[in-house]
Amino acid sequence: MPRTSGSKSKKTVRPAKERVRAVLTELARLYPDAACTLDHKGPLQLVVATILSAQCTDERVNKVTPALFARFPRAIDYAEADIAELEEMIRSTGFFRNKAKSIKGLGAKLVEEHNSRVPQTLEELVKLPGVGRKTANVVLGDAFDTPGITVDTHVGRLSRRLGFTSQKDAVKAEFELMEIIPQPEWTTFSHRMILHGRKVCLSRKPKCGECTLAALCPSAEL
């Protein structure tokens, strides 16, 4: 059946537990070592890199961050940074003015309210400049080993195609996914879906013919 994910009349039926488990098992087989692809050492570097990754590839971010992290190793360094210098260092990641403002504000908030440390709860993380639920879940999962579902464009797109959610709003999709994905697997699920989205389930031309999830996917073009 042709893929009709763009059809307004298509309804997404809540998936059976067996199908969800089968998808998770196959993703684990395909990407057993899936992990965060943003280069970082510690939570501060990760939160900054994740802010930079908005509307930008991880590959590009990883080219920018070595010099950035060397120049600004601590939260107070970001807080006291010259905004023009910061903007220039991250210019190639796009939206550099807004990102620089967020990162400088992040440093200031960490110094003023968190003893220069990145907080370890979602509630505190989302109060930081430039940090929404997506960034918070990345930091929780990869810096603090606290499971979180990161709904980026890949996770959202694949989840809709697989019939795991019908939501286009990332937060609403996150909450629906939290109901059907076992909590211990939230972080690895996100990483594996992102990798599958980059390699196989592409946005415009998904490679359904070579996708081993096709038999489980109601949107597959077979």
From TrEMBL:
<feature type="binding site">
    <location>
        <position position="211"/>
    </location>
    <ligand>
        <name>[4Fe-4S] cluster</name>
    </ligand>
</feature>
<dbReference type="GO" id="GO:0046872">
    <property type="term" value="F:metal ion binding"/>
</dbReference>
<keyword id="KW-0479">Metal-binding</keyword>
<feature type="domain" description="HhH-GPD">
    <location>
        <begin position="52"/>
        <end position="199"/>
    </location>
</feature>
<dbReference type="GO" id="GO:0019104">
    <property type="term" value="F:DNA N-glycosylase activity"/>
</dbReference>
<dbReference type="GO" id="GO:0003677">
    <property type="term" value="F:DNA binding"/>
</dbReference>
<dbReference type="Pfam" id="PF00730">
    <property type="entry name" value="HhH-GPD"/>
</dbReference>
<comment type="similarity">
    <text>Belongs to the Nth/MutY family.</text>
</comment>
<keyword id="KW-0411">Iron-sulfur</keyword>
<protein>
    <recommendedName>
        <fullName>Endonuclease III</fullName>
        <ecNumber>4.2.99.18</ecNumber>
    </recommendedName>
</protein>
<dbReference type="Pfam" id="PF00633">
    <property type="entry name" value="HHH"/>
</dbReference>
<keyword id="KW-0227">DNA damage</keyword>
<keyword id="KW-0378">Hydrolase</keyword>
<feature type="binding site">
    <location>
        <position position="201"/>
    </location>
    <ligand>
        <name>[4Fe-4S] cluster</name>
    </ligand>
</feature>
<dbReference type="InterPro" id="IPR011257">
    <property type="entry name" value="DNA_glycosylase"/>
</dbReference>
<dbReference type="InterPro" id="IPR023170">
    <property type="entry name" value="HhH_base_excis_C"/>
</dbReference>
<dbReference type="InterPro" id="IPR004036">
    <property type="entry name" value="Endonuclease-III-like_CS2"/>
</dbReference>
<keyword id="KW-0540">Nuclease</keyword>
<feature type="binding site">
    <location>
        <position position="217"/>
    </location>
    <ligand>
        <name>[4Fe-4S] cluster</name>
    </ligand>
</feature>
<keyword id="KW-0004">4Fe-4S</keyword>
<dbReference type="GO" id="GO:0140078">
    <property type="term" value="F:class I DNA-(apurinic or apyrimidinic site) endonuclease activity"/>
</dbReference>
<dbReference type="InterPro" id="IPR004035">
    <property type="entry name" value="Endouclease-III_FeS-bd_BS"/>
</dbReference>
<keyword id="KW-0456">Lyase</keyword>
<dbReference type="GO" id="GO:0051539">
    <property type="term" value="F:4 iron, 4 sulfur cluster binding"/>
</dbReference>
<keyword id="KW-0408">Iron</keyword>
<keyword id="KW-0326">Glycosidase</keyword>
<keyword id="KW-0255">Endonuclease</keyword>
<dbReference type="GO" id="GO:0006285">
    <property type="term" value="P:base-excision repair, AP site formation"/>
</dbReference>
<dbReference type="InterPro" id="IPR003651">
    <property type="entry name" value="Endonuclease3_FeS-loop_motif"/>
</dbReference>
<dbReference type="InterPro" id="IPR000445">
    <property type="entry name" value="HhH_motif"/>
</dbReference>
<dbReference type="InterPro" id="IPR005759">
    <property type="entry name" value="Nth"/>
</dbReference>
<keyword id="KW-0234">DNA repair</keyword>
<keyword id="KW-0238">DNA-binding</keyword>
<feature type="binding site">
    <location>
        <position position="208"/>
    </location>
    <ligand>
        <name>[4Fe-4S] cluster</name>
    </ligand>
</feature>
<comment type="function">
    <text>DNA repair enzyme that has both DNA N-glycosylase activity and AP-lyase activity. The DNA N-glycosylase activity releases various damaged pyrimidines from DNA by cleaving the N-glycosidic bond, leaving an AP (apurinic/apyrimidinic) site. The AP-lyase activity cleaves the phosphodiester bond 3' to the AP site by a beta-elimination, leaving a 3'-terminal unsaturated sugar and a product with a terminal 5'-phosphate.</text>
</comment>
<dbReference type="InterPro" id="IPR003265">
    <property type="entry name" value="HhH-GPD_domain"/>
</dbReference>
<dbReference type="Pfam" id="PF10576">
    <property type="entry name" value="EndIII_4Fe-2S"/>
</dbReference>
